Structures are given as structure tokens and as C-alpha cells.
């Protein structure tokens, strides 16, 4: 991967890549990209873990919640999951639906990684009602639920920094065999417009990630969604939180074998790279393209609203390894104070409906 990047950099007249270009290549290049390579990424043998991989209770709870909305309001029993990883959420959701509900479910997985598509085929039965797609174009217009879990944090971002009163874009160059950062005076009008639009005024010495790709992704969702809900699960900050002095170094980081790596130029193509989502920008951009804001909750609060506590089973089984014991521990791990859920938020948006937040939980 390093030789591949070097060839691209030296071929440029500027001898540099933007951070967004770098992240796009090291994560999504069809041959060398981290997400495209045949390597376990999620779980104890990988580099990170997601809520859906703690237990199938996560996918089953959201399936039960959505089924109640379908039954109560007649919303379309279709779901498009964006970036389904190893398919564990999809399997839990589909299993719960088929076991409990009569309405036929149409489940689409938008997945561009050949490796993840292969993993999904091992755990899911694909056919007319469960399909893998590579583009929104394959299902436009879509009506139903658009769901993503830790997708937006993995989209490419630019990096901007303020030094000596001047805004710079942080670029990537080469020195010998090493990738290095190079600061150039910020001239990208799209980045300047983003900072102004979302009222992001950097302090001296502060850097921040600018997610132009997030805006484009939201535009694609809105274009494809005719009517339905968008549920986005991720970690991020509001504009006010971004401006806090504790975030002066931004949020860009890598994960390799469950260890946080501060220098994302290390191990290109071999580790996950992530940054916190701009929640206010996601919500405001959604409004502009017709995805109207419903709510933003911590994930544990969302799961409690869906009725996950009803899934706790009273029992007196002394065996801590029994299925009931494991299930109860998984539920508690998702809702207890300080659990991983407290670091995630669930943002709900709607198009073509006029739901109020309480409408979507009264059926749970």
C-alpha cells in the first residue's frame, strides 16, 4: 500500500494528497483498501467491535421496534441497511421478523466491500426478499427504513487547522519512505463554506475534520428515499462540543487490534480509520434535502425507549454460560451507565411522514 500511495503522490504536481483522498484510498481502494481486503475486522479477532456484534439482541430489538411501527402506521416493511459488515445485525433483524411477524419483509444490504459481501452470504439466505446491492440506484425510489450503524464515522474527511491566525488544510506528502503531514493555506471553497455554514470558528492551534462526503451521502439517501425513516447510529459531537478545548486536536484516529492509534498515517490499509460525526451538520443538511429531524438520543436511551428491558428474563439458572444468562448480560451491557451505548447516539429523520417522536415508541 505504501508504494501505491507513493506513486500517486509523486505523480501529482503538488506532491500531496488531501486527507479525504488518503482515507478514501486506504479504506476503500478495491485492492488495497482496509474494508475491501479479506481480513477479519469486527469482533475479538479484528480491530474493533460494534453494538450489533455484542449480541443478536441489538438487531432483534430494532426489528421488533420497526415491526410495531409497520403494524401501527402502515409504513412499508422494507429496510435498506448501509454497510452491513459481517451481516450479524441483518441476520438478527431478519430472524426476529420471520419468527414473530406475518408481514413479508424486504431487506436490502448496500455493501461495496467484496469481503463483507462474502461474509454476509455465509450467514444470510439471499433471494427475492433479501438482496445485496452496490448502489442506491438499484432500489430508487425506496420506501421504508434506511438504517446504518457506524457508517458515517468511516467516511473520508478533510482536515483543517488554525495556526498563527491562519487556516490551513492539512495534506499528506512523502519524505523518504514515510507519509507526513504538510499544511497549505486553506483555499478549498467547499471547506471554507462548510466552516461558515455550520458556524465552526477554530481557536488557535485547533484542528477539525470536515466531512464533505457526509453531505453527499445524505443527498444520495434523500434522492433515493421516497417515503420513510432514516435511523443513523454513530458517535459524534454537536457544534458546541466540537469547539470545546478538549477537542482541539480533532477526532481522527485509527484502530488496530482494538488499540487506538493516534497517527492515522501508520499502517495504511491495515487498520480502521475513523472520525466523530458532525451531528448538527448531519441534521441541518438532512433538513435541506428533505430528511426532517425527529430526534437525537443516546443509544442506551433509544434502546430503553424501544422496550429492551422487556427482553430481560427472570431466571434462577446458576450457570453463567447459559443462553439466558448470556442474553441478560448482553442487554445490561447495552443499557448500563458507562456502557458502550452511552458513547453512541441514534439520530432519526423522516421523509413523507409527520411523525412525532412519541408516535414511534408508543407501540414498543
UniProtKB/TrEMBL annotation:
A single GO molecular function term of this UniProt record: protein-arginine omega-N symmetric methyltransferase activity
Pfam family, one: Methyltransf_28
Biological process, per Gene Ontology: methylation
TM region positions: none
Highest rank taxon of the organism: Bacteria
Keywords of this entry: Methyltransferase, Transferase
Name of the featured protein: SAM-dependent methyltransferase
